Amino acid sequence: MSGPFEIERREHERGTVVVLTMADGENRWNTSFTRAFDAALDEVEATPGPAVLVTTSADPRFFSNGLDLAWITSKGEHPGGDRRVFATEAMALFARMITFPLPTVCAVNGHAFGAGLMIAMCHDVRVMRADRGYLCANEVELGFAIPEPELALFRHKMPRPAFHQTVLLAKRWTGAEALAAGIVQQAVAADEVAAAAEAMAADLLRVAGNREITAWTKERLYGENATLNHPHGPAHLLRHQTEYLSGPGAIPPGH
């Protein structure tokens, strides 16, 4: 596709690895970029059969450098689009990614700041460049409070000590530190990021055969009344299983 995103499909024995490349320089977030990303996800989702998404950047220095500050502070018309709808549309896009019906791999090949870190954390797993680049939610440094939805995203995706350091101290995580903290699953040399991400995606094709189950499970993890947030503990749920939702393909109680 044209514009700030490129899509490449690579066939494997079990299905298709779809590589979505952000190709808009530092890949800063504005309304136009958000809408283009959403349209790219439509194309990815239209891939037939088992498929896994890999998201990366064409720029070896920046995976995504956060909010487009020049756009947000500009006056009048701007190629970045309507400022009034950005927050709503961007948050909806992050929600779409975290509940995407395909397994997702993020190949973080450069800096991921702010919204760049958010989209990385919305993926199921992450591979990061080890030698250069940081992960950082730097809102506190810029004088912004991190919105509650973003805090919830980070809390669900990060171990608690890493969450604390990320949102309160604006820690800049190197690849090695992010791996040790459990934020990413692999940290490799710059020239190995793409191959490592595709290998991880190819392995995940084994669980990519039923999008309905993938989508249902992610919604129960991260959506309304999510299982992880339920006021009752697992013992109560187990004792009263008929009161709770069972997903597609589940064995009915009593069988």
Give your account of this protein's structure.
The structure is a single chain. This protein has a single domain (about 5-205), classed as 2-enoyl-CoA Hydratase, Chain A, domain 1, CATH 3.90.226.10. About 40% of the residues lie in helices and about 15% in strands. It has 11 helices and 9 strands. It has helices at about 30-45, 70, 85-100, 115-120, 140, 150-155, 160-170, 175-180, 195-205, 210-220, 235-240; strands at about 5-10, 15-20, 50-55, 60-65, 105-110, 110-115, 125-130, 135, 185-190. Strands 1-2-3-5-7-9 form a 6-stranded mixed β-sheet, with helices on both faces. Helix 1 (about 30-45) packs parallel to helix 3. The longest helix has 15 residues, at about 30-45. The mean pLDDT is about 90.
Q: Work out the radius of gyration.
A: 19 Å
- CATH fold-type name: 2-enoyl-CoA Hydratase, Chain A, domain 1
Beta-strand percent range: 15-25%
Overall number of domains? 1
Regarding CATH, which class?
A: Alpha Beta
Mean pLDDT, nearest integer?
92
